[in-house]
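Sharing in case it's useful to others searching the archive later.

Someone asked me privately for the predicted structure of RCK N-terminal domain-containing protein, so I'm posting the question and my answer publicly. Question first, with the sequence:
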Amino acid sequence: MRKSNEEFPNLSLRKPPLKRSKTIPNPKHTHFSVSVSDSDEQWNYPSFLGTTTKKKKTSFKPHNLNLPKPSLVPPPPPPPPPPPSTSSSPLSSQVTRPQHHQRSPILYLLFIASIVFVPHSAYLQYKLTKLEDEKLNLCCQIDFCPGNERTSLQKVDGSFSYILNADSRTVALYIVVVTLILPFMLYKYLDYLPQIVNFLRRTNNNKEDVPLKKRVAYMVDVFFSIYPYAKLLALLFATLFLIGFGGLALYAVTGGSLAEALWHSWTYVADSGNHAETEGTGQRIVSVSISSGGMLIFAMMLGLVSDAISEKVDSLRKGKSEVIEKNHILILGWSDKLGSLLKQLAIANKSIGGGVIVVLAEKEKEEMEMDIAKLEFDFMGTSVICRSGSPLILADLKKVSVSKARAIIVLASDENADQSDARALRVVLSLTGVREGLGGHVVVEMSDLDNEPLVKLVGGELIETVVAHDVIGRLMIQCALQPGLAQIWEDILGFENAEFYIKRWPELDGLFFKDVLISFPDAIPCGVKVAADGGMIIINPDDSYVLRDGDEVLVIAEDDDTYAPGPLPEVHKGLCSRIHDPPKYPDKILFCGWRRDIDDMIMVLEALLAPGSELWMFNEVPEKEREKKLVDGGLDVSELENIKLVHREGNAVIRRHLEGLPLETFDSILILADESVEDSVAHSDSRSLATLLLIRDIQVSSFVAFEIKVIMFTSLTIVSCCGSQNVYHTKTLGSLTTLGSVTCSKLQLNQL
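And my answer, the predicted structure tokens:
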């Protein structure tokens, strides 16, 4: 037979040979069977006779599948069988997956048919009842029904009004059953809805980027996120749905009306104990279900109320509520200087019975309140309100009533000078962007003197800048050259004793300044704020200066309500001896550490010291870098006439390095907060204290009796001490002395 087929290949096309299939079991793979026909037997070439290229391999197919009828044309060669190690589970899963997709339209059709046939069955039930009534009428007309039961039945019209009788309960029952089953069916087959639509439209685009179930969940999530009352509306809808659904169920299992069933459903929802008196199995099942749903709804309502209350309490606790104040002092930012600043403001508000201070910083409200409570200071009627927010955001500024504040203080951050000034500039831009305007003046703390003009340019006349770092450096020089000046600065710059006040007195208009000097018995006039010159303050003007309309007098007084101008006293003219200025002698000063504004301090020393003075600079900065930094700061060392710079390299906290200095020859020693550690207040103060203690111990151990002034600058703290008496006084500079206040208190307790 094989030979004949080879000689006459066209015979197979004229008359197909009879086919008979044989199943050859596979001993190695029990999951597969080999189907061989007479026409394909020529391809079953024995393996022991060698290989041949003209023979096709036997196709292996699953044993349990319904194979299609083979066609007349031989199929293409199938892929080789899997290796013996491959299990049959992947193959079976690959084969059954197309069957799942083939059956899915049938399931969809069954689902749609079940939904369509429910109202159709109700309609057929209605028609059946109608026909039975017609039959009963006909029977009564031909005397088939008893005489006592003969009644005249009303004619049944073709409307659905009759469905409100007995059959309406069946419809209600169907509606309840469908309503119960529909959510589960939608949850399970919601993703196949686009495929059903495409199938009905005879389209083949069944690909969906996002499943419909996820899309619906996303829409619900967006709805609850955008609309604040979405949860309440959902709860209301669930309540109404439960009442209506329960009413239909009760109407289906009881004999009452629909309105009565809805009322009973509401009572079961409102009070879960009302179902105890129900009778009948169906009515009890429905009433228990409605009561369970009512308990869930009330639990959800309690949860929503609890969440709303908790959210409001958290908002108040975290400082997110609005501050409704006016004429208050607003502090923007947070730093270690805030403690001393609050103390001075509380003392200033004591005369007016207290006030309100609002602090806006990028910290948690609880943390800020805890830090303020650690100050252990009596605020004397002043209230401190903390709010968490950013001074760079207009919404947060409006939250603290920035337009109604009588004074705004912008604190420098604890970053380096450039970053702190850049942040202060952004805060000033935010303040100028307030639409309502600013009712008070703004004081901005700067860290670098070079950045001050830029902030004034942006802020305009409302902005006043204070470069505390450079100002304290200049005050240090004066305190080092004049012993006891630190106490005077403390009294003037702080609110404990006398301080500066500016006020207008119309009765002084037209007087000479020499007459104004003797017009205040309880104050000391020291300057004039000229109104005609844009509010410029002139310190110690000429005696011939005449006060004009709008000018204000700058005085030093105990408080703003303790002084007033009086009548001019009589002045007796006389001669007084001329006081000659004492001669100046060269000084020898030591700087321990390197500050950013050390060039400015050297220029101040150049103006105050006598010719021939020496300034020793002892720090870890290399000498070449020192000269470069001084030149970058605007100081030309070659132009110094009164002082001579002497450079020494070393660490001020190492005793061996300090012992190499002639400490007994210096008239003043200034311990500066080193530039390398100025970002950390605690670290800077620790180094300065260590240097002070080492210098003191070296002096005591050397048994040298000499008088020396040591001025230690710990951040913004001045410590003045007299070596001969071994008495050390720690003083702060009023409202400017805010950094290092903790260190000062420790020094006072230990009498260092």
